[in-house]
Amino acid sequence: MAQNTQNIDALMAEERTYPPDPEFAAQANAQAGFYDQDPDEFWEKEARERITWFTDFNALKQWDRPHARWYLGGRLNACYNCVDRHVENGLGDKVAYYWEGEPADERLTITYADLQSRVVKAANGFRSLGIGKGTKVAVYMGMIPESPVTLLALARLGAPFTFVFGGFSAQALGSRMVEMECEYLVTQDASNRRGKASPLKPIADEAMDMAPTVKHCVTVRRTGSDVTMKQGRDLWWHDVVDTQSDDPASCPCEPMDAEDMFFLMFSSGTTGRPKGIVHSTAGYLVGVATTHYYVFDIKPDTVYWCAADIGWITGHSYIVFGPLANATTSVIYEGTPDFPDKARWWEIIERYRVNVLYTAPTSIRTHMKWGAHHAEQHDLSSLKVLGSVGEPINPEAWLWYRDHIGAGRTPVVDTWWQTETGMIMVSPLPGLTTLKPGSATRPFPGVEAAVYDEQGKEIAPGEGAGYMVVKAPWPSMFRTLYGDDERFRETYWDKFPDAYLAGDSARVDADGDFWLMGRIDDVMNVSGHRLSTTEIESALVDHPDVAQAAVVSRYDATTGQAIVAYVTLKEGAEGSTEKLAELRDHVGTQIGPIAKPANLVFSDELPMTRSGKIMRRLLKDVAENRELGDTTTLADPSVVDELKQRSEN
Ligand code: 6R9
């Protein structure tokens, strides 16, 4: 174990450090002293500065573990904060979204005034169907302007929503609507995916068969694909919305209590049943607006692009509510990064002079695999900050991102957070933090993160790895699991009496910087040695021919668990027997012979969730030759069948 820890240190403790550029530091939103602020004073100040309240709050927080309430007595409306007040403040002509359709040359510039007009019409349309304060609504859409418009219109009316990612199955959508008892569904006929129409309404139809509480379904016509409209239940968006008034006074923003449920985001847990993560109105909005402003160093003229999907928490927090609350100009792109070609992202960055790009390590590794020449064809000199989220980022990808996308000068902010936390929790601040490739560095001000040992004792900096925890409530923390407070307690609060258990393993190095090492359930035990999947993946990806790697364990009678690695090679490299031996040896030298994978499978693709996380659970099923578990979150289910065949050969 001791030797193994040393090896982890050797791999993870990157020696390269990148202090902030003095010029950037001088103009940064976060200045010296930022970390010295008292958490309560900080969250009170930010709440007043970033949010407009209809009624001021009279108490900052109430902590009745594990239940937190923030900004008590305050009344506000999220749509008002994201849209109306900006128009009232003279920002009506400012661009809210540059929307880039997947078909080349289909694009829209949506100002804050346009956004208000669209939102008011949609809210009036929804209201005409009976949606009002407290009505529960499901949203199942792609990356079209009507997606944020729908969320904002529902926020305006005070209707809690759950946005189900457009790639989920009928089963996944149906069960979520049943769980939340949704009365309405908003969807689109189909979405554009690599030049083809990928159906949504037909899937929604199947889902509604399972969810009898749904009274009406509103469908946006996007692709013109054939759909069946059920008389009395199904309506077209253009029929419901287009004829409505866009006068904001015709549909005022509903004053909501700070603690009113804002939305539910379903997230998969260790068991099959998804968890309905409940977010509140005020705390959530304060948390996402504040972190967005400081972590990405947002200025009035910043052009910002979070290339996630609105259907997962990163999209909610950092495409819709955080950026709009800060009156930011954002880019929304409908399609995939390789359509019509692999330079599409870089073309978009050049066109809109994007200053901030926020994406996931898996996307960065995909672009690495495709090669830097795609980016080199475009002028990316507008970029000032690059962000990463979703998984631990291996140093190689971090460096590639900074060097090839950021011209070796942009700070990379590796942001650690979760659906549960609502906002970024651990991240560098680009003007203050000395960066280390692979480290999320420091907790955001007002976030009391720590690493605990098995006994719940805090592990001191430089003293090894343990459980990632948070010791005090933060504004945007989830309030409970919908309809299952018991599971909320058991999953997150029972392990330690005084902290939130995040479910990740982490360590803090001697400088006080955090290194996130993957989910605690990703830790393997091979012949009594604890090995993290992330650590071996990082060693594999360190090899010049490897693009992506996923490591899982399978049962082994001798060693307890044995390591199975799935590897995608970079273009031009060949998955030969020699290459296999070479990669095993590479892991051997990087970590130690114990970490050499027992099996190594070459594959063109790895099974990914739509939010860009490798589905290790599925790979484990493949490795152990088991019946496959729930695949509803998989981006491309055919990948697994392919892998099964290869593993058998
Ligand atoms: C925002 C989001 C949460 C889990 C989290 C952790 C992993 C996210 C990370 C990271 C290392 C980072 N994770 N960001 N691990 N470094 N910068 O991804 O939410 O989908 O709920 O996933 O993702 O394992 O626990 P969610």
Ends apart, CA distance between termini: 35 Å
What summary fits the major beta sheet?
Answer: 7 strands, mixed
Give me the count of strands.
Answer: 29
**What is the helical fraction, as a range of percent?**
25-40%
Bound molecules: ligand 6R9
* Topology-level CATH name of one domain: GMP Synthetase, Chain A, domain 3
Query: How do the strands line up in the largest sheet?
Result: 5-4-17-16-18-19-20
Radius of gyration from CA coordinates: 24 Å
Q: pLDDT average, as an integer?
A: 92
The CATH homologous superfamily of one domain is called ANL, C-terminal domain
Q: Which parts are unreliable, with pLDDT below 50 for 5 consecutive residues or more? A: 1-8
User: What is the C-level CATH assignment of one domain?
Assistant: Alpha Beta
Organism: Janibacter cremeus
InterPro entries: Ac_CoA_lig, ACAS_N, AMP-bd_C, AMP-bd_C_sf, AMP-binding_CS, AMP-dep_synth/lig_dom, ANL_N_sf
EC number: 6.2.1.1
Protein name: Acetate--CoA ligase
Report on this structure:
This is Acetate--CoA ligase. It is an enzyme of class 6 (ligase). Residues 629-649 are annotated as: Disordered. Residues 37-82 form the Acetyl-coenzyme A synthetase N-terminal domain. The protein is of the alpha/beta class and 649 residues long. The protein has a domain at 522-648: GMP Synthetase, Chain A, domain 3, CATH 3.30.300. It has 20 helices and 29 strands. Helix 4 runs antiparallel to helix 5 (112-128) and helix 5 (112-128) crosses helix 6 (146-157). The structure holds ligand 6R9. Residues 267, 312-314, 389-392, 414-419, 440, 502-504, 516, 519, 611 line the site of ligand 6R9.
